[in-house]
């Protein structure tokens, strides 16, 4: 089958696309993007597919996390380093508990476009087009800023490249050294009230590390870390322009990220997003909400992974804490009975959002944990592998989700609410989540 052109994708009536005021500027932007350098290499995408195949087989665990929506202004060295740091800290704890490799996948360096449940936003009687992410329009609530501007896609490319190069530098420069990352965790446990609960596990990890050093484990193993990037493939102009023919394999890859996913609102079986991602060779994901039937999931797998290759397709379920125990079992059971090779990952964020009385969009830490626990329990009962978690988080001390060991309250939300879209777990809540998921992984293996 030939690679679809952009016009044929638009002919499929894609959901959640910007309405650009002027076509000529879109065309010239797309032409520039087609000539822009790839952000990742196809062979790196293949490497990630291999790792995700291990997740699908129950031999590895996925940690995917980052902002709901990155912003151009938010791309600073501090912000990127803090996010990388918290993800690495979480990964160490999970690796110890799971006793299998943890695949580290940033939801960053490209996460700039947002699907919205409403096309419009009203504030104080004024109605304007909704903010669709920095890839599309401005967050500022003015008519001018909310007009979709295609030139923003070039900025997505530039800032994603900058983020990725910072990450590569931190990692190759030794920032991710396991001993250092573990020291950050012991500091968290020692210094914060929220962390003290996890002292015993941190202590065990200490002893395991001391043991490895004592037997002379290869210092490179402490130093080396794999990290990949991912985002939702939403704006077709961008994803299509970044999809390139790989000279090694003669197949197309979307080289804007290693892993790309299709959101809950754009996963129509015959829609443009499914069509585009069916034609690229990256490892891909699909978000599945509570209305997904097993037939939907099986049909999606048929289109997106016709060769049933493990690692190619990840199903990211986001049911909500109250619905996962009822809704997930039949989905997993039927997909498994159909013999499909998929990695199952839990997004415990998007089914648990509500509006606080103060008007802030928030999530309860306990609901997030309850959904992950439901996910583990369902997979345990079915004998399938809970392959990982997909989390909206930041390395900073923001106040966007309520609860957790610091007992953040609704009245605290305004102190430091910085997300331009969904509420993220802050640094401490993210580390707590990692320790709690570690306990779930441990309980599974006894
Ligand atoms: C998201 O991941 O930010 C998102 C919008 O998720 P979903 O497609 O699951 O609603
Ligand atoms: Co979100």
Query: What is the CATH-assigned architecture?
Result: Alpha-Beta Barrel
CATH third-level topology = TIM Barrel
The low-confidence runs, each spanning 5 or more residues with pLDDT under 50, are none
Number of strands: 14
**Going by CATH, what is the homologous superfamily?**
Aldolase class I
Query: Strand order within the widest sheet?
Result: 1-2-5-8-9-10-11-14
What percentage of residues falls in helices of 4 or more residues?
A: 40-55%
Bound molecules: phosphoenolpyruvate, cobalt (II) ion
Could you explain how this protein is built, in words?
The mean pLDDT is 96. The longest helix has 22 residues, at 77-98. This protein has helices spanning 6-10, 23-35, 42-56, 77-98, 152-172, 178-191, 199-214, 219-223, 236-241, 272-278, 294-304, 324-337, 365-382, 427-445, and strands spanning 61-66, 102-107, 120-123, 126-129, 228-232, 243-245, 252-254, 259-262, 284-288, 313-317, 343-346, 353-355, 361-363, 388-392. The strands form four sheets. An eight-stranded parallel beta barrel has the order 1-2-5-8-9-10-11-14, surrounded by five helices. Strands 3-4 form a two-stranded antiparallel sheet. The chain is α/β, with parallel strands linked by helices and 446 residues long. The termini are far apart. A hairpin with a 6-residue loop joins β6 (243-245) and β7 (252-254). α4 (77-98) packs parallel to α14 (427-445) and α13 (365-382) packs parallel to α14. It has one domain (6-19, 40-115, 153-176, 224-445): Aldolase class I (TIM Barrel, Alpha-Beta Barrel), CATH 3.20.20. Cobalt (II) ion (CO) is lined by residues 68, 350, 392, 421-422.
